[in-house]
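Section 5.1 Outputs to date
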Amino acid sequence: MSDSTFDRYGRPAIAVVVLSMALLSVFSGYLRFEQQGVVALADSAVSVYIAGLMLWGLFREGFGTDRFRVLLYLGLVLWGSVDFLIGTDSTISLVILIGGALLLGRAAYQYAQRRQKPVYDR
């Protein structure tokens, strides 16, 4: 039986951290919506999307799958785009938007490369 220390203590600790960060994100989105009204709706929706995605990755899909990564990169692009659309753009928003777009392009390129390989090499 290979029960490592990481499997015994590390994974539950990571699960607690991800769960608490997701709950904090949802709560902060709710507070932003309460204070700023409809203006903060798009930003709150992106926060809830990323929090939900992290929970889905933790409990259902796993963080290492291509589908999770593509959805996460799409969330980064949405986050940067929303910041520019509502007028709270900054250098960080630009970095998130460009970084998410580059990572999305990289994931698409890797998918295309894998599709060109013969079945026995995949």
